[in-house]
Amino acid sequence: MEKGINQEKPISSVIRERIREAGAPFAANDNIAQYIREGEMPQLEAELEEKIQGVLETLLIDTENDHNTRETAHRVAKMYLGEVFSGRYTERPRITEFPNVKQLNQIYTVGPIAIRSACSHHLVPIMGQCWIGVIPSDHVIGISKFSRLANWIFSRPQIQEEATVQLADELERLIKPYGLAVIVKAKHECMSWRGVKEHDCAMTTSVMRGYFLKNTATRLEFLSLIKDL
Ligand SMILES: Nc1nc2c(ncn2[C@@H]2O[C@H](COP(=O)(O)OP(=O)(O)OP(=O)(O)O)[C@@H](O)[C@H]2O)c(=O)[nH]1
């Protein structure tokens, strides 16, 4: 079978119809892995490569004679689907759970976790750090899984507010903690590389759940724990 856009119906249309039939959302920061069947990602990559090639042509870049851009469409398609936006197309990472045998009932923190994303508006990078605070209930997860989950959520076109809430929702579903805090501080290249060109401006978003939300002392303890980390 011919790949990508050359077949009768582009593979993106086939997948889109499947998602619509299921009544599922497919916004930039939604995960759509369950609607993609085996063997379809290479077809999607081939379709995307042709479209990126079209973008380069419209930008009047001579990809035939410019040795630097000859393979650019291929590289960009591979990068979007397999790297920077892979959190849309891959299943949630496997999470190992352990019982909280000793009944730790105090705060533990994880961070800073590196945040790499792109804004949904201009598709340019968002780079930053994330700190997580947990007051566990009866089980905990492997600490590397906080990074894996954050990477999965942020490797999508995002806005920082929604990404922070998505990460908190996912963690809450998984570990059902008595308290959960997620803080993200990031710089947006749509504000530095272009636009207002503010180089030092960062955005901080915070989601507090359970004890962290209800109890000011608990919240302040978490903030003081991460302050000098
Ligand atoms: N709330 C929020 N805004 C964001 C985020 N990332 C980028 N933005 C902003 O989204 C806005 C998009 O605004 P528009 O006015 O539609 O786009 P624009 O004309 O290119 O705007 P300028 O950036 O002001 O030049 C900009 O103000 C961005 O700075 C984010 O994570 N959260």
From TrEMBL:
Cross-referenced Pfam families? GTP_cyclohydroI (PF01227)
- Please state the Enzyme Commission number of this protein: 3.5.4.16
Start and end of every GTP cyclohydrolase I domain? 49-226
Please give the Gene Ontology molecular function terms for this protein.
Answer: GTP binding; GTP cyclohydrolase I activity; zinc ion binding
What pathway is this protein a component of? Cofactor biosynthesis; 7,8-dihydroneopterin triphosphate biosynthesis; 7,8-dihydroneopterin triphosphate from GTP: step 1/1
| InterPro entries, per database record | GTP-CH-I_C/QueF, GTP-CH-I_N, GTP_CycHdrlase_I, GTP_CycHdrlase_I_dom
Annotated SUPFAM superfamilies: Tetrahydrobiopterin biosynthesis enzymes-like
The biological processes this protein is annotated with in GO are: one-carbon metabolic process; tetrahydrobiopterin biosynthetic process; tetrahydrofolate biosynthetic process
Catalytic reaction annotation: GTP + H2O = 7,8-dihydroneopterin 3'-triphosphate + formate + H(+)
What enzyme category does the UniProt record give? hydrolase
Query: Keywords on this record?
Result: Hydrolase, One-carbon metabolism
GO CC, any one term: cytoplasm
- Family membership noted in the UniProt record: Belongs to the GTP cyclohydrolase I family.
**Which PANTHER family would you find in this protein's record?**
GTP CYCLOHYDROLASE 1 (PTHR11109:SF7), GTP CYCLOHYDROLASE I (PTHR11109)
**Name listed for the protein in its UniProt record:** GTP cyclohydrolase I
Organism field: Mesosutterella multiformis
Q: Which gene encodes it?
A: folE
